[in-house]
Amino acid sequence: MIITRGEGVRVFDDAGKDYIESVAGLWCASLGFSNERLAKAAYVQLQKLPFYHAFTAKSHEPLIDLSEKLLSVAPVPMSKVFFANSGSEANDSAIKMIWYYNNALGRTAKKKIIGRIKGYHGITVAAGSITGLPNNHRSFDIPLPGFIHTMTPHYYHGAEQGESEEAFATRCAEELDKLIVAEGPDTVAGMFAEPVMGAGGVIVPPRTYFEKIQKVLRKHDVLLVADEVICGFGRTGNYWGSQTFGIQPDLLTCAKALSSSYLPISAVMVNQKVFDALADESHKIGTFGTGFTYSGHPVPAAVALETLKIYDEMGLVEHATSVGTFMQKELRDRFAGHELVGEVRGVGLVGAIELVADREARRNFDAKDKVGARLAQLCESHGVIARGLPGDSLAFSPPIIITQDEVAEMLDRVGRALDELAVQLRREQLAVV
Ligand SMILES: Cc1ncc(COP(=O)(O)O)c(C=O)c1O
What we know:
alpha/beta, 4-stranded mixed sheet, 14 helices, 15 strands, 42% helix, binds pyridoxal-5'-phosphate
C-alpha cells in the first residue's frame, strides 16, 4: 500500500481511496495528517536556525523553551530534560542514566533492569532488551544479560478462577518482589513500565497495580521509569498515563505525540534526586559523555513546542476525555457481545478488541491462523488502517483530534470487517460459536 497524502484523521492511497487511521500511524500522529501550523513551525525554524547542537555548554531557544514547557506539565516534579530522536533512544538513555546514577552512589553492582513480559520499549540493543516480546528478540541475541522480565498484568488472561482485580494486582506485586529478592536487591537498579502496555496488546493494568508495585520498588530502592511514549499527551484521558494510574516515576520518557510525530524527537525527564547524582558523578569524573548529534535539534524542538501549544489551545485533556469516553462506550456496546470478541479493553483514546476462538474458555486462535492479521486486512478493505497485535488483538489509538462522528464512522467500518471475518471463520470452522 502506498500512502500519498493525509487529511485530518484520514490518509489516502495512490488510488485515492481514503482510510481512517485508527492507530494514528504508529500511535503517534496525534494532530492528524494535515496540520498547517506544525508545517509552518518547521519552516520558520529552518529559516532561522536550521541546526545547532547541545554539546559543550551550548543551547538554543527551541530546546530551552521546550525543556521548560515539558517540566511545567510533568506529572510529578522533574528537574531536567535530555533529548533524543526516538522512543528507543530515550529509553536507552534512561538506562545509561540509571547505571551512571548507581555508579555515582558507589553501588556498582546495582545495575539490572526489569521490564515486563509483553512490554514494548523499542528495539535498540538495550531498549530492545527491556521489551518483553519474543518477536523483537528472536535471532537478535537480545535480551542482553542483566535484563529481566516480570509478569504481564493482564487480568483477563492472568487471573485465577475467582480472583479479584485487586487480588491479581497484589499477586503481580508479590511476584515482582520475589523476582527482586531472588536476583538480589543490591543488583537491581530500575524498572520500566508503560502505563498502558501498547504494542503488547493494549493491556490496562488491574486496579491498584501501580500503587502496589511502586511500594515494592521503593522498598528495594529500584528506580521507576514511566515509558510514556504512547500514553503521554492525552492518550489515556489525562495529560500523562502516570496521572491516570497514580504513577510517580523517577524518570519519564516520551516521544511520538510530543511532536505529533511530524519530526522525530524524544525526551527523558529526570527528577532532582537522579539529576543530583548525575551531576555529582560528572563533576567527579569530568564528563557526562552521552548525547546525540540531533539531541534537541531546533527544528523538531520547534515543532514539538507548537504541538504542545496546540494541545493547550484545544483543551487536550478535556477533548481526550470526552471523545475517549465515547470511544470506550462504543467499543463495548458494539463489540463486547460479538461472537469473536473475548475482551474489549482500554482507557481514554486507546483501546483494543481481542479475538478469541472460544469465548467461554478465553482461548485464543492458533497463532498460525493469523486471525488478527486477517481482521486488520479486512479493515483495510473497509477503509480503516488498523493494527493487529500479538494475541489477535486489534488496537485503536486514533489521532487525538478525532471527533465522535469520526469514531463512529471508524467503528462502523471495523464492525463490517469483523462481521465479514466471522462469516469466513464459521465457514472454516475455526471459531466456537
Ligand atoms: C511504549 C513505547 N516505548 C518505546 C517505543 C519505541 O519508540 P521508537 O519506535 O520511536 O524507537 C515505542 C514505539 O512504539 C513504544 O510504544
